[in-house]
Amino acid sequence: MPLPVYDLQFDDWNEDELARHSVSAREVLQVLDGDPVFFRNKKRHAAQLLMVGPTLGGRMLTVPLAATEIGGVWRPATGWESDADETARYHAARGRRLR
Predict the structure, then answer these.
(1) Residues 34-91: pLDDT tens digits?
(2) DSSP, residue by residue, 22-84
(3) What is the spatial distance between Cα 82 and Cα 73, in angstroms, rounded to a whole number?
(4) Which end of the chain, N or C, is more open, meaning fewer C-beta atoms within 10 Å of its C-beta?
(5) What is the arithmetic mean of pLDDT over 2-29?
(6) Tell me, what's the pLDDT at 44?
(7) Helix 25-33 / helix 12-20 crossing angle, nearest 10 deg
(8) Cβ distance 97 to 86 under 8 Å?
(9) Beta-carbon contacts of residue 90 (< 8 Å; ≥ 6 apart)
(10) How far from 61 is each of 5, 12, 80, CA to CA, in Å?
(11) How is residue 96 annotated by DSSP?
């Protein structure tokens, strides 16, 4: 991964946006602290990266991340339960075959 992601920045706005998709900030932090993979966001929004990975509860989440002025600290723009393509990309990046 070309850019380090060490921590995430949350506030009321992005926590509310996550909640609209039934995702909590705690789950997003679980993805970061677990086994995430990062992809460039092809949609070219302010969120340059997509973080994809599992939560401790077994959900697979996709979280667009925007850079902040602090190196290694990123801001989740939103998040959602990963679709089949995002899940497949995650497993391919981890070298796992889907069953």
Answers:
(1) 999 999 988 767 788 999 999 999 999 999 999 999 999 999 999 999 999 999 999 9
(2) T--HHHHHHHHHS--EEEE-TT-SS--EEEEEE-TTS-EEEEEEEE-SSTTEEEE---EE--H
(3) 22
(4) C
(5) 94
(6) 64
(7) 90
(8) no
(9) 37, 52, 53, 60, 82
(10) 16, 20, 6
(11) -
